[in-house]
Amino acid sequence: MRKRQNWYLPVRNSNLKVMNITLSVLSVLLAYIAGSIPTAVWTGKIFHGVDVRQHGSGNAGATNTIRVLGWKTGIPVLLIDLAKGWFAASLPVFLNAAPEGSAQLTALEIGCGMAAIIGHVFPVLAGFRGGKGVATTFGVLLALHPLLTLICAGIFLVVLLISGYVSLGSMTAGIMFPVLLFTVFDTAAPLLKIFSVIIAIAIIITHARNIGRLIRGEEKKFLRKRKDQGA
Fold first, then answer.
1. Which of 31, 182, 218, 226 would bridge with 213, disulfide CB 3.0–4.6 Å?
2. Predicted confidence (pLDDT) per residue in 192-201, tens digit
């Protein structure tokens, strides 16, 4: 019996490794597909006959949807985009793709989160022309570190209310996430710290045009009357 067990265990371990790899790949693919769901584009076309990418800022995100189609359409888009990120980062847990609390699970959650963000920015379901991924990123971070994400959401709201600029609020919150993670939440996993820095840099890069408009004084404020917003 002992010889049979010794022979069987390596085979069983090998099968488990194959299953884990399969679940990991499946998780990342599903995360990308979830992120690729072009909420703003589909909602605009189905309910308004409008492609939001051809109006306003040309961005397929919640902010431009609110500007072009109003709050009743924009808020559901915002919530769905947020949910995409949360769902994607939670997929490895749902699929039991790695041991709970392991570094492997953390890495897979981050990998799925990145896949969802990439899917939102470059959606295969919408000709690879998506949004900036801020709401989806928020959903990912909410799954990875809920408390810090909610704090950064508060920072975003404060900056938005004071300045009126969504872009400035998004960039400030994105930068503060790694700053607070390194200084206040110093027990966070190293991979999450690296990911937070990457996210902050990515948010700055995707807002490069907004930064230019802010410097030139041409950025449109979000908290103003619709009649003053323009297209």
1. 218
2. 999 999 999 9
| pTM given for the model | 0.85
pLDDT at 160: 94
Q: What's the Cα-to-Cα distance from 110 to each of 4, 81, 90, 153, 190, rounded to whole Å?
A: 39, 17, 9, 20, 12
Structural tokens at position 168: 């400035």
Q: Which of 12-16, 107-111, 115-119 has the lowest mean pLDDT?
A: 12-16
The percent of residues in the chain predicted with pLDDT above 90, rounded, is: 70
Whole-angstrom distance, CA of residue 225 vs CA of residue 59: 20
Residue linked to tokens 């499946």: 26
Give pairs for 198-205: CB < 8 Å, separation 24+: 198/114, 199/137, 199/141, 199/174, 200/174, 200/175, 202/117, 202/133, 202/137, 203/132, 203/134, 203/137, 203/170, 203/171, 203/174, 203/175, 204/171, 204/174, 204/175
pLDDT level of residue 125 (50, 70, 90 thresholds): very high
Residue owning tokens 């960039």: 171
Q: What is the mean pLDDT of the chain?
A: 87
Closest residue by Cα to residue 77 from 103, 95, 50:
50
The whole-angstrom separation of Cα 122 and Cα 132 is 9
Contact between 80 and 36 (Cβ < 8 Å)? no
Q: How many residues does the chain have?
A: 231
